[in-house]
Amino acid sequence: MKARTFFISSITAVLLAGTAIAAPGHKPGEGHSHADDTPYGKPGDPKKPARIVQIVFREDDGKMLFLPDKLKFKKGEQVRFQLRNNGAIDHEFVVGTVEENLKHMKDMEKNPDMEHDDPNAKRLKPKATGEILWQFTKAGTFDFSCLIPGHRQAGMFGTIVVE
Fold it and tell me: Blue (type 1) copper domain: from which residue to which, for each copy (predicted)?
């Protein structure tokens, strides 16, 4: 009986340790949640109307691109990003400040398999679609990037201006 209890305790410890190291730079259970208002806005309200903006991910002649890569919104505007990966490899769409995205890009270099499915970020397989509902609550210039190692450097980023 003691051996069985030890075995179950050991398995539980290994499983808990695995969740603690799953996302370097983040506390267990913390993830990438941006539920609170951030410098670039907050998750949208599905009960309210939203402007629909389609974003296509693709690779072309050695470059990785978002189409379009320049967006303009009004302060307070809610946007439903309809995302489509037309590329041959995984890509992601992460809304943030330039500084925050560049910092997170460094974290991604250490853990390239880190996946995003947060209010401000979505990772998509080739030919897949996804959606982000976001409200831009503050004026400013913001960033959207693919933070998979090498993708932003290959041109996969864009600018959001909120007036």
Answer: 57-163
